[in-house]
Amino acid sequence: MFEVGFTEIVLILGIALLVLGPERLPKLAADLGRWAGRARAMARQLKTQLEQEVHYDPLRDPPKPAQTQSPSAQPPASPAQNAGPPDETDASKSA
């Protein structure tokens, strides 16, 4: 369909060198490399997710329930929080 050989790549680089100049060409090449790396990473991640979805069997692998904190993982309540409203008998004794 559309093939780019070695001579075409050299020609494109030569034209880019003439148009951009030697100062901006290395920065452009680095930016293009970063974009290509990100695109590859995104494609790899998408491929992995699609493969996981294709091989997922809901009957064989049921969804895992959300993890909840156990009561022991919560900090202990202070005595003031555990105490209910003051009894009327306690108030009448101190008066």
Protein model, in words:
- This protein has a domain of 58 residues.
- Helix content is 64%, strand content 0%.
- The radius of gyration is 34 Å and the shape is elongated.
- The mean pLDDT is 78.
Structure at a glance:
This protein has 95 residues and is mainly α. Helices cover 64% and strands 0% of the residues.
Poorly predicted regions are none
Overall, the morphology is elongated
CA radius of gyration: 34 Å
Structural class: mainly alpha
Helix/strand order: HHH
Fraction of residues in β-strands? under 5%
What is the count of β-strands? 0
The end-to-end distance, rounded to whole angstroms, is 99 Å
Bin the helical content. Answer: 55-70%
Round the mean pLDDT to the nearest integer and report it. Answer: 78
Q: Main sheet?
A: none
Give the helix tally.
3
List keywords for this structure.
95 residues, mainly alpha, 3 helices
Could you outline the blueprint of secondary structure elements for this entry?
Blueprint: H1 6-55, H2 79-82, H3 88-94
